[in-house]
Structure formats: structure tokens, C-alpha cells
Amino acid sequence: MIAASYMLTSCSDGTTYIKQIHDPLLYCKTVKKLNDIVLENNFPPMIASRNYAYANIAAYETMVAGNPQFQSLSGQIKHLPAMPKPEAGKTIDFALATLLSFTKVGNAVTFPEGSMMGYYDDLTKMADNVNMSPDVLKNTMDFSDTVVAAILRWSKKDNYAQTRSAEKYTVTTEEGRRGQVEHRGTVVLDKGTRLGEYKIERLIGVGSMGAVYEAVCTATGHRHAIKVLNPALAVVPTARARWFASATWRFAHRSAPAGRGCLAR
């Protein structure tokens, strides 16, 4: 009798969306969206880890606001400020807000620009389609945006932008260190550099074997991520083998759409 009463109440109070929106697998799916972009663009590990870290911290801090059992990371992670609090009297769906925060921060810290906003729109449309109240949806989106803004402000203090100049690599040949790579700060490819039909726009990140650049195809106008092997490593047979093995896997991978994530020597 109690169970039946609860079900009738749920159907009449506008909470029928909870079963779909609060499904834990939806968070897994959301994380995979960012993972697919990382794989498609062949981001170096330190760039990918930055993307995952900020997106997941934003999601966690959003979830914390709706659950007193969790403790904020503010004050535990260096320089992470206090996070925004929900406005009193406003109903917020914190499960959906968590997904939106992850998606929006993930979109802001990754490349190409706007790559996750289609999924963001899918989430809000799904909430609308399963009868989430327009007021609750708006409150949820607004609160998520306050957390996103706070996380992105914090992210700009990590010196990421200041350290995004490519590095020159020299291969040492002295005994005991043969084949090791040393780093020297210098720009490898300037904006406007041409690689075949591609024109370099900006550096995305530097990895242990080369750099990833944003480039524009002069024939189509489409933007691509191009990974360039550092010339100094071309003299190391094992480095060349790893590079071509990566290229073979990259283009054989099912998640790689046509015309994205090109590899260049």
C-alpha cells in the first residue's frame, strides 16, 4: 500500500525523470564522450589527464552541493577556492547538474572547441523529454554554470597557457644515457607553417615524442589535430618504430572519424 502510494505520488509530482537522469551509467557514458575526443585527437597523456581532472573535479563539486555526506575538495587541493552554494528555495537536480558540469568543463579544456556541446544539448533535451520541470531544468543549468565558472577560473592559474611553447629535444649519446631525451624550450612550428595542405594555427600540447597542433586544411577549411614527431627523435630506431605503431593503431581505431587526428612526420 505504501509502495503504491509512493509510485502514485512520483507520477504526479514531476519526478518521473529520475530513473533515467539518475542512472549511474549515464555518468560513465558522459566520461566516455570526453575519452573519445582525447583518443580521436591523440592527445599526449599530460594534456589528457588535465582534461579529465578538471572535468571530474567540476562534477564532484557539483555533486557535493547536493549531498552533505560528501566533503568538498576546496582547501584539500592546492588553491581550489570555496565552491558556489545552491540558492535557497530553488529546486535543483544535482545528478543532471553533475553531468552538465563535467560536460561543460570538459568542453572548455579540450579541443576542438565546442566538441562536447552537442552532447550537452542532448542531456538537456533528454531532461525535457522525460518531463523534468522547466523551472527545475533552468535552476539545474544555472547552478551548474556557477560551478563551471569557478572551476575554469581556478584552472587558469595552473600556468598551462604559459607553458604551451613546444620543446626542442636532443638525444644524448654518452655512455649509460644513450637514447634518453632532454628538453630545451623553443618553438618548433610557428603559426602559419605549412605541412602539405595543412596550415598550423596553434600548439595544443607537447608529448614525450612530439607535439600536437591545431591546423586548418587549406582545401576544405576544416580544423584538425596534427601530431608531429620531433625531428631529433627520427634518428632513434625505437622512437620511429613506436611512432609508426601509434599511427597504425590510430587510423585503425574505430572511434577515429575521417579527417581528424592526422599524424605527420
Please characterize this protein's 3D structure.
By secondary structure, this protein is an alpha+beta fold. It folds into 2 domains: 2-155, Orthogonal Bundle (Vanadium-containing Chloroperoxidase, domain 2); 165-264, Phosphorylase Kinase, domain 1 (2-Layer Sandwich), CATH 3.30.200. Helices cover 45% and strands 15% of the residues. It is built from 8 helices and 7 strands; from the N terminus they run αααααααββββββαβ. The strands form 2 sheets. It has a 5-stranded mixed β-sheet, with no helix packed on it. The protein has a two-stranded antiparallel sheet with strand order 1-2. Strand 4 (198-206) and strand 5 form a beta hairpin. Helix 3 (24-40) packs parallel to helix 5. The chain starts with a helix and ends with a strand. Residues 1-12, 166-187 and 248-265 have low confidence and may be disordered.
Keywords for this entry:
Vanadium-containing Chloroperoxidase, domain 2, 2 domains, single chain, alpha+beta, 265 residues, disordered N terminus, Phosphorylase Kinase, domain 1, disordered C terminus, two-stranded antiparallel ribbon
